[in-house]
Amino acid sequence: MSAQASVVVLGAGMHPWGKWGRPFLEYGLAAARAALRDADLSWPDVQYVVGADTIRNGYPGFVAGAAYAQALGWSGARVASCYAACASGAQAVDIARTRILAGLCDVALVVGADSTPKGFFRPVGGDRPDDPDWQRFRLLGATNPAYFALYARRRMSLHGTTPADFAAVKVKNALAGSLNPMARYREPVTAERVLSSPMVADPLRLMDICATSDGAAAVVLASESYARRRGVTRPVRLAAVSTVTPTFPHTTLDLPNFATDSSAAVPPPELPFRASIAHAAYEEAGLGPRDLSLAEVYDLSTALELDWMEDIGLCPPGEAEKLLRAGETALGGRVPVNPSGGLASFGEAIPAQAIAQLCELTTQLRGRAGPRQVPRARTGLAVNQGLFGHGSAVITTV
Amino acid sequence: MTFAIEGWFAIDGDDVRLLGTRCTTCGTVCFPPRRGFCPNPACEGTELVEHRLPRRGRVWSYTNACYPPPAPYVAAEPYEPVTLAAVALDEVGIVVLGQVSGLTVDELAVGMELELTSGPLADGPLVWMWGRPS
Ligand SMILES: [Zn+2]
Description:
The structure holds two protein chains of two kinds. Chain A is α/β, with parallel strands linked by helices.
């Protein structure tokens, strides 16, 4: 992509993650204002605002884009909202990026925020016997951690991963999170503590599974020419945003499904879904795993971080533990994974999470990450996957 | 007998079967049963006929719910951890999730053979379950 045609992150802002119990708009507004301040712009300068929808397990809960626009003060900006489960934030970024690339606007604000209830995510209330997200709870009691646990057990069986490996992921991410003022959990933990936390969904314990959090993140995106006019000389560029769907047959048992697609008539695709999300981003950016300075991956569970490391090509299947044990994915390692602290330190605020990942990439690539700074960070990748076949990958470069 | 969901499984004496569908054009099998269009993007098929899935398969993975799942699940009192298994049915190339009857996670292993059976939810209606082969 030529310099003229690229889209840059002009500003990034967050509201700290926690369990604050306040309306999501309040967090979103704080993040939006922080991103605007960071971009040295004021709200009326924004030509386009995109909201990542706040949801309850799969359903658009609120008209997010317009809600943020009203909260910031009606300015006549163009507006859009989108829902894509855990990828909502990345799709919102992609919508804004595309409009900038099309030349329809120069500067856009993307906001995601959530307020979460206590405990397991559950389906929207009321009887909906034709909704798979309702059915999986009703018929099986299959919560989100149940699916994470299925992947974890499968990994243990295929690759000999141990609960101690899972705990080592948590220890690593908690240490990084302790250095991040936006993280909800800011206390280093020991492996012993992880391994003695209560079992939730065998083999995953409480401290292997990400919490549900309140939080918000926002970015200001702009055309590179707009950024240059504003005097920005070394902008963080969006080199790729991938939001691909799975390819039939999708042979991994995915939330909230009861079964996989059948591979009886059509063989499975070369790349499984998660790997295909990252692959599409690498193709678009003209980059590969070896180019990465750091990666933010969606560690819904400790075990899933190991799967993701392989899906994004940091190592062949079955070798993630080796990298982890060698410290290569820790701060100070060859390619830090989740230098932000990851979901392990944040907990998930669904529509904000992919934007928060982009905020971390931006902060790292600007060299402003303080004690968790990855030295000479030039290329970052952020990936996630959520319900209903949604997932995304974002690559940024300087 | 009250089924927790109609049309997803059938019970004939001891024989319990999941009721999938098969596309008469390309042979793609689906579970849960599907109406309308074949999910294979390269297939124009619209005739999806009932297809009884094989009764036995091998454990792809398994877990349990140490805490009572939230509503609409109705948890037994006192609560006993629900065991879940995802079972690969190789003949139709599908992995199907179900509760496990009569086995805990300590008795399960990836690759182990299980057989379809049925059992009641805490409030009575029957659901398909994976169990030890008879
Ligand atoms: Zn077909």
